[in-house]
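S1.2 Input.
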Amino acid sequence: MKSFLSLTISLLFCSGTLKATDKEQPNILFIFTDDHALNAISAYDGPLAKIAPTPHLDRIAREGMLFNHCLVTNSICAPSRAVVLTGKYSHLNGQLTNKNVFDGSQQTVPKLLKKGGYQTAIVGKWHLKSIPTGFDHFEVLKGQGQYYNPLLFTNGRDVNHVGYTTDIITDQALEWLDQRDEKKPFFLMCQHKAPHGKWEPALRHLYEFDDIEIPEPPTLFDDYSGRSPASAQHKMGIADHIGEKRLMLSYASKFTPEQFKQFDQAFRPKNEAFIKADLTGKDRTRWHYQRYIKNYLRCVKAVDENIGRMLDYLDRKKLTKNTIVIYSSDQRFWLGEHGWFDKRWMYEESLHTPLLVRWPNKIKPQSKNDLLVSNLDFAPTFLELAGAKPMKGIQGESLIPILKGAKPKDWRKTHYYHYYEAGGHGVPIHYGVTDGKQKLIRFPDNTLNTWEFFDLQKDPMEMKNLYAKKSQTANIEAMKKELHRLRKLYKIEE
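S1.3 Output.
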């Protein structure tokens, strides 16, 4: 009888109809940024690590686990966010492009966590056009929002704020934490606009990096000669496409008079000197790169500082031990590699996104993981953490065993990618498969109708398309077979 009762309780808990205690259900703090490149997080030990350290992000990695191969399913803002909420590929959750309106009536993580006893909130960037559902509280930017003086759509009404958006999002997230029902565990999605363009730094960082020259990536002047015609048709070049507002030659935000005065004092003299110099060719591109990368890193600095504020809050309120902190971004971003400044492609600089997780007494500190994980896995991870009801049709896998140190034998060996938004920055529709060692990409557009195949071990920068090489025929055919298998597995119509 005792064993039967235990089994019944266990089944009820798994179904989400019985709430666990707070100790059994950790608080979940999900910090999400926009377009954060791995090279701009010093824990990843890239070429910018010593120039632009991120000590608070590094703290999460130091006290938890760093994932080296977290891959996105669709490297563009709204689709990536929809994947996080649903654990399903774009063609199933309906968010194929930034132009779609997210269907809030479908099953999502916050809805199931709420049913499982969690108090749920989202503060910051939403970018899904529909009204957030499943949250007890929401304060979200309309569209992309601005870096200064944002309007936050707050539980159905517009509320204006004065200040720097990265700071304000953190302010409002902390305010919600202070006012929450402490009898319930919380699920908080703190989602920053930064470091998405157009990159307007906080006033306190306007002169950061002024006294140094940021090293150029070796592929800054890539001519795309080693690949298919697809990459050469881009419109995301630092040399020719970045534009005045991304270069801070003109400003995007609506400033207060005092904000404008400080901002203009920092940029106007440099802008006038640039115009007077009338640079051309590589000299002009180099100036563009320095202006872009410094402003990008300045925006990251504010993100890192505010993550520090969140971690300090958890410490101060004695919430650290029972709170799992997950940091990621909707996709990675080019920082001048191949001469680019955007995302969208299945190439490495766009495909990989940062993932750092701290879970005291569960994750071994300073852990690093090399498995192929995905933003597809975030939703099932949230649900397992909460002991909530599994989501019907979910396509990702929970990261909980990995976080606890296991190496699942049946973990994915390959990853499927699919980009649907034709024309954005000149990037064509494409899909493909990678196993981390080699990559096959298909460009089905009638004007292209081509393939690319890369040996990532010998050519990590993806400079040489080997699709036409007879020596690679067997490898290519094997990857085509795997691509077909994944498309069938994920229910993609041929």
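S1.4 Remarks. Confidence is low (pLDDT under 50) at residues 1-23.
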